[in-house]
Amino acid sequence: MAIQLPELPYAKDALAPVISANTLEFHYGKHHRAYVDNANKLIAGTPFEKESLEAIIQKTSGDAAKVGIFNNTAQIWNHSFYWQCLKPGGGGAPTGAIAAKIAAAWGSYDKFAEELKTAGITQFGSGWAWLVSDSGQLKIVKTANADTPIAHGLTPLLTLDVWEHAYYLDYQNRRPDYLTAVIDKLINWDFVNERLA
Ligand code: MN
User: Fold this and answer.
1) Which helix (H) or strand (E) segment is 180 a member of?
2) What confidence score (pLDDT) does residue 141 get?
3) For residue 161, how far is its CA from the centre of ligand 1 (angstroms)?
4) How far is CA 49 from its chain centroid?
5) How far apart are CA 132 and CA 30, in angstroms?
C-alpha cells in the first residue's frame, strides 16, 4: 500500500500571479513528489507499510532512529494540507463559522492576519505557520522543518509553507511579500470552515 501523491486541487497556473506555475511545477511536481518517493523507499518492508500516513507520523515523531521516515511523511501530510488551504480568488477576511471564532480569539481579522504573518516571518529557517485548534481553542503556532501540529495533539485548520522553495522563484528573499499576498488573495476559507465542522 504505497503512499500516493495526491492530485493538486487546481491547475498549476491557477494561483498565479501570487504563486506562479513555475513554483508549483517545482514545489508540487518535484519537492512534494520527492517526499512521497523517499517515504515509500524508507517504509518498504517495514510494518509502516500497512499504517496510515497520520499513524506513521505520530509513531515516528521524536524518535531519532526514525527521523527520515518522520521528515518525509510529515512533509507529505503538510504539503497535501497546504494545497487545500489555497484557492484562486481566496484570501481576505473570512465568512462563516471561522469568522466569528477569529473575531472572538483575536478581536479582529486584521489582528489575526498580522499575527499569522508575523509567525511566518519569524519562523527562523524552514518551516510552517499554522492556525490550529487546541481542544477547541484557536491558536497560531509555527513549526520547524517537517514538524507538524498533528504530532502534538493539535488540529490544523490552516497552514502557510515558509520554506524558501515555497516562494523563492517568485519573491526571492521577500518572505513577507509572499505571506502578505497569500493571506490577502489565496486562503481557502471554505476549506478552513469545513475543518471546523
Ligand atoms: Mn514546501
Assistant:
1) helix 175-185
2) 98
3) 6
4) 24
5) 28
CATH architecture of the domain formed by 97-196: 3-Layer(bab) Sandwich (3.55)
How much distance in Å is there from the Cα of 19 to the middle of ligand 1? 12
Give CATH for domain 21-84: 1.10.287.990
In tens, the pLDDT along 119-133 reads 999 999 999 999 999
Residue 186 confidence class, pLDDT cut points 50, 70, 90? very high
Residue 67 grid cell: 527521523
Given a contact cutoff of 8 angstroms between Cβ atoms, the answer to whether 127 and 148 are in contact is no
Residue 1 has what pLDDT? 64
Cα 129 to ligand 1 centre (Å): 12
What are the residue boundaries of the structural domains of the chain, listed by start?
21-84, 97-196
Residue 143 DSSP one-character state: E
Give 176's pLDDT tier (boundaries 50, 70, 90): very high
